[in-house]
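The record is given unchanged here:
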Amino acid sequence: MFQDFDAASDSSGSAERVRRLRAGLAEAGLDGFIVPRADEHQGEYIPDAAARLEWLTGFSGSAGTALVLADRAMILSDGRYTLQVRAQVDTSLFEPVSSVETPLAEFLPVAAAGKRIGYDPWLHTQGEIRSLTKAMERTGGTLVPVRGNPIDRIWNDRPAPPKGAAMVHPERFAGRGAADKLAAMAEKLVEAKADAALLTDPASIAWSFNIRGSDVPHTPLMLAFAILRRDGRPTLFVDPDKLDSALRDHLAPLADIAAPEEFEAAVRREAAGRAIGIDPQLAAVRLATLVAEAGGTVVEMADPARLPRAIKNDGEIEGARAAQRRDGAAVTRFLAWIDGQAPGSVTEIGAAEKLEALRAEQGERDGQKLREISFDTIAGAGPNGAIVHYRVNRDTDRALDAGNLFLLDSGAQYQDGTTDITRTMPIGEPTQEMREKFTLVLKGMIAISTARFPKATRGVDLDPLARIALWKAGCDYAHGTGHGVGSFLAVHEGPQSISKRGMAALEAGMILSNEPGYYREGAYGIRIENLVLVEPAEPIAGGDLPMHGFETLTLAPIDRRLIVPQMMSPEEIAWLDAYHARVAATLAPLLSGADAAWLEAATRPLAAAS
């Protein structure tokens, strides 16, 4: 299994850990300290050695920040984790704060007015510290960079840094040679008038050099840094223990290799009297300080790999389609299986285990083995489905009982693509309320699927389309509608998103999720998710402008038993029927026996639903 089901967190030691942290801060002359959920690479998935926020508070979510002062402590998280943070954290120690309603830049200057607040400059970006510093100045507070994280000094059993094996990512999956990518990125430095650029995002390094790793859960990344030069060979800073002979041979024509411990000194040497490109939204603020101390000039520029990585090439797109067919067959086999189980006979863990086994089996059948899951499966029955990023463990495992809705959000990592799909299904007979809310969510998902939009349209512009049916019913959901998805890389990829913060233009070749939802606390959750590919702009008869659209990549039935047809327009019904016809035609050759029969019944036109 790629997922374990041990308890996700433990806050029993938080009181003593906070006490020791406060003692260390007092000795250092600090009034408080910021503890982000971050590592030196600012990644979503971090190694155990960097899980400082979880160690201190018990909170295991992928986004959050703690602020520890001498007399109070707070933990900020967004709407995805409203329920989770209260369940995992000792709220007598840490006051939960909504980072949406009160972002850290608004909360910190009030909570820490006139105080000296420490931070680890390796765990915050340049842009973040700039914003926080400006905010603190309004109330007389001061941010103090701390060399040597004070949590590390008291974390006696801190895990060792990862040494996961890395591998070459073949060009038949990458779709483009690494030398070509690196040359194109060097041209970006010329445009930015930078002599060199610092690459700190392991996903960008993986994409640029056509390599993959195993240093963090569920995402095939090798933790590393790189210096990309306008003229001259790049240098890759990576633990040599991660490289086998095949990978060394692959990298030899592309870059020089150095140990990670040499990175700071190398940045100082590189920066002396030169212009160094840094992405202020991705790179640690420590790097900007190193450049300035060495007499260099910081050139603020976007990570030169980020946008090309997001715009998939033809090889990556074909790989994504193949991965979705394979994954769709496995998910459909699961849906057929769960439909045949008696209510109460399967638990959330049992469902997650079955789905992973089917993915592994389908991958072997199709000659493209399951490399990993792309995130911990969210398998939420009844009230657990209302926890947006619920992670089932042996303490919370629930049976799928009659009358429940079961929300299953899962994904896989194959060499040719990364998948992410959510389906919600009834266990037994759903209530009318459940069906109505599901239909509202489905209407939002179809609105995104059928959207046509001009060049330069951003995700923020499309986000309301997914919400309008829910808004008209007085409902909403507290997460984005869609995130970018990598190619055998991170399941959450920027800069593209469909959300209230989605400011990047959606360009042809980008892959995003389309996943509106609805959550009734203590009762049930609903989410429907497909991945979509931004298609090139094409003329529309009678129109004035060519328009982009979406190709739906994900292939698996949407449960018709939860739909109220009378709430849908003829156009929405036509889309659903056409989607189901495509699902049936594509997946039928991959299925047999009872699975094939189930697929045929599940994809009949909506008017034929019984």
